[in-house]
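Hey L., structure's done. Input below.
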Amino acid sequence: MTLPEFGLLLVSILLSVAGQWLLKLGALKLGKVNTSNFSSHVLGILTTPELLAGLTCYGLGAIACILLLTRVKLSVAGPAFALIYVFSVLLGYFVFREPVSFSRVVGLGLIICGVILVIWKD
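Output:
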């Protein structure tokens, strides 16, 4: 993977993680969904700025992903997108103060090692 391709991968990953962060913020703003408030929550999704911004980030991340796939094999790019999981856990830990267990840290380490092995040039 060349430097421009790696940059495109990072842009796609960061936009996806930003989208997740914004969707979480919007979801917290909406509150819990149950059968009595389902309709209002569906309408709330369309009017919550954080949710709309999150969906926009996901869309832009998808565009970056498509551009990357025109240059890189899916067998390389696909597994590399697993870094989204790593950044999501870090975001949950540092921003939303979610606990991260030792087994999850080990799993994230394995994901990082796997991505390095997949994108490493022979």
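Residues 3-119 form one domain. The mean pLDDT is 91.

-- N.
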